[in-house]
Amino acid sequence: MKYLITGGTGLIGQALIKKLLRSNNSITVLTRDVNKAKIKFGNDVHFINALSLSNVENINVVINLAGEPIADKRWSAEHKKTICNSRWGITAELVELINQAKNPPSVFISGSAIGIYGRQNESEREVEIGEDFTHYNHEFTYDLCFKWEQIAQNIKQPNTRVVLLRTGVVLANNQGALAKMLPPFKLGLGGKMGTGKQIMSWIHVEDAINAILHIQNNNMIKGPVNITAPKAVSNAEFSHQLAHQLNRPCLLTTPAWVLKLIFGEMSDILLFGQNVKPNKLLQSKFNFSYPTISAALTNLI
After folding, report:
1. Can you state the percent helix, strand and coil of the chain, rounding each to 5?
2. Alpha carbon 9 to chain centroid distance?
3. 176-199 as b/e, with b when 16 or more CB fall inside 10 Å?
4. Residue 66 — left, alpha, or beta (φ > 0 → left; ψ -120 to 50 → alpha)?
5. To which H or E segment does residue 175 belong?
6. Measured by CB atoms within 10 angstroms of the end CB, which terminus of the chain is less buried, N or C?
7. Is the four-CA dihedral 225, 228, 232, 236 of positive or negative sign?
């Protein structure tokens, strides 16, 4: 199988490529830093630093995961622009090339996020959000993901299936959100954020990459797909489970005003959440290896 992958050095991209390499697939990765990528993957991957029509001709699967990290720092106007352009630009370029191809890919799997749904207030947290949910809360994450998905759906090739990955918080060992949470919890200084009632829709990285491969191989799955575990948890429950796995107390609270002072508008993604349900994965009989937060954290920690 021939793959073209963008964002290959990100959390999901790295895990996905390592799994694909075990089955002797042909993989081309678009990267800004070829030398850095070679250190991660060696010589079994073909690296490019720019796209051309030849990169999508005769490719079976295009997986678009590129994008500037969204939760690394405050959202200044300039940083918001960088976050948007890093997703919209590469997606538009891929769509244009796929539409020009004489032998286009059979499937275009493009990134998105559950941020498209916007925040749920505490009174709404019992409402489960499936892929057919349309009561979006219009805010920055919605604007970002909505346009990102619109661009991806401009594929004109009748035989190219388009899938949009609405990904939740991906949990992985020594990477991503969990790596940032572990230090204070290991010191016994961890605890809930704000009220702790906000819902966290998460997924183990192994389930995330297996879900992508499941989607690739299931021609009936198209459009938006929620990439989350079937059981979302509150921030308070997640905090207690993490502290329990580390044999540490979970007594402290980070007040909302402190998070707002440190992170500004970006603190919204920490203080508000979405109770997302992966209906399409469940309906297509995808088997989650880590369906509960306890199982996921036990494996990772």
Report:
1. 45, 20, 35
2. 13
3. bbbeeebeebeeeebbbbbebebb
4. beta
5. strand 175-175
6. N
7. negative
Q: Hey, what are 19's tokens?
A: 């799994």
Nearest to 190 by CA among 130, 247, 123, 273: 247
Q: Of 68, 65, 66, 64, whose CA–CA distance to 83 is shortest?
A: 68
- Structural domains in the chain, CATH included, are 2-300 (3.40.50.720)
Can you give the C-alpha Rg of the chain in angstroms?
19
72-95 pLDDT, tens digit per residue, is 889 999 999 999 999 999 999 999
DSSP secondary structure, 189-205, as one string: --EEETTS-SEE-EEEH
> 48 pairs with which residues across the strands?
30
State the Cα–Cα distance between residues 174 and 171, nearest whole angstrom: 9
Q: Print pLDDT tens along the chain (301 aa).
A: 999 999 998 999 999 999 999 988 999 999 988 888 888 888 889 999 999 999 999 999 999 999 998 988 899 999 999 999 999 999 999 999 999 999 999 999 999 999 999 998 877 878 899 999 999 999 999 999 999 999 999 999 999 999 999 999 999 998 889 998 999 999 998 999 999 999 999 999 999 999 999 999 999 999 999 999 999 999 999 999 999 999 999 989 999 999 998 889 999 999 999 999 999 999 999 999 999 999 999 999 9
User: Measured between alpha carbons, how far is 200 from 235 in angstroms, rounded to an integer?
Assistant: 6
| 165 Cβ neighbours under 8 A, 6+ residues apart | 109, 110, 111, 112, 212, 215, 225, 227
Return the number of other C-beta atoms located less than 10 Å from residue 165's C-beta.
24
Provide the angle, in degrees to the nearest 10, between the axes of the packed helices 235-245 and 293-300: 40
Residue closest to 30 by CA, chosen among 105, 110, 90, 87: 90
